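Task 17 of the worksheet. Students: predict the tertiary structure of the chain below and write it out as structure tokens. Keep your answer in the requested format; marks are given for formatting as well as content.
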Amino acid sequence: MATNTDNKKLVHRKFPLLVRILIFLYVALMLSIIGLMIGYGILDNPFEVFRIETWEHIINLTKE
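Model answer:
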């Protein structure tokens, strides 16, 4: 008679689920920052995107 443990296959992952999630979040953050720099770099200096004054200006433009 076969038991339930005989029918199940154990899955061994090279990268645990938590590591996969952390890698996904890191890559998403990096791509967002790079995208912001490229998008803002078309208009002006790409490193201006990291200044708080830039974001305050953008927020003020959207509120008006």
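Marker's comment: The chain has a mean pLDDT of 85. The chain has three helices and no strands.
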